[in-house]
Amino acid sequence: MLLKFFRRPLPIVLTSIIILAIGLWVKTFITETTVPFYFDSIQMPFYRMVMGWLPNNLLLNTIITFALSLIIGLWLLGLNSKHIIIKQRTYIPTLVYIIIATSILPLQRINPAVFAAFFFIPSINHLLSIYQNPNVLDHLYRSGFYIGIASLFYAPASLFLVGLLIAATVIKSTNAKEFLAPIGGFLTPWFFYIFILYILNNTSTIPDLLTINFKTEAELNLEWRQFIPIGFFAMLLLITGLFVADSIGHEKINVRKFFTVFFWYTVTGVATLVLLPTVSYEIAYILAIPLAFQFSYYFSYAKGKFWSELLFSMVIALAIISQFLY
To answer: Is pLDDT above 90 for 221?
Structure first.
């Protein structure tokens, strides 16, 4: 059975995940085609800077995006090992992240959300680190700081500061200083960016930058059959969410708090997708982080072997089938 195989913490499992990930990107590597997005012309400063550094080479940019996606997926394992979010040692979070983030082929291209997602990992790491830690202010400041950097790549990432503030109160009752620390961290990279613009006498561009990045209408450009993976993952979100809500009461306090954090990050991501016209399905690179842990918890602990095996097999099958839907 597929789930039984991927549950095992063996090198062959990790190797299989990497091979599967490469397989899911083969079509993009070979065809070297790309779907236009709004962020090709509307770019936040850090993303514009990176794109200016990179050569105009589609294959190279695709390889960079793939490498970043794989690094983020593997980084989740380190996050899990440090904070013991899922007690069972497993590589499933990496597999789930890669599938959710990149099963939609148009996402297999360089984009600002994948850079933002890269900085979300240390942000979440510092957020979870405030649990029973006396150095709360430093961790909260750093958590907000990384979201601030992420927002300079991908403007909608700034809304996750709200999720961070809510999540911080879930892990630990915060006072005024602890509430302001992540806000100060978030504003720090923006302060230096605005300061540089001030030196260059170019601060007048900031309102236009924010307006165009938050109000531009993004087009999905998907046919009906291409919404099948999105619909399936939405169904899986509901199933696994109900399972986590029913089972989490038996876990330790820190695990309960951590999954509540992931819940608020998921809510923030969905709200961002719904409320901001600029946001398209590229936000999957960020949303896949909390969902990877939620789905993995279900696949690691679900007692009904038939349904968990079936749903997991459908995840793998859909990832493969998706390559022929575009």
So the answer is: no
Q: pLDDT tens, 170-207?
A: 888 778 888 899 999 999 999 999 998 888 877 777 88
- Judge contact between 108 and 34, C-beta under 8 A: no
Q: Could you report the per-residue pLDDT of 224-246, keeping only the tens digit for each?
A: 666 777 888 889 999 999 999 99
Angle at Cα 99 formed by Cα 95 and Cα 102, nearest 5°?
130
Quote the distance between the C-alpha of residue 86 and its chain's center.
18
SS (H, E, C) 126-162: HHHCCCCCCCHHHHHHHHHHHHHHHHHHCHHHHHHHH
> Tokens 């029973």 correspond to what residue?
132
Q: Is the pTM of this model over 0.90?
A: yes
What does the chain come to in residues?
326
Token readout for 133 is 């830690």
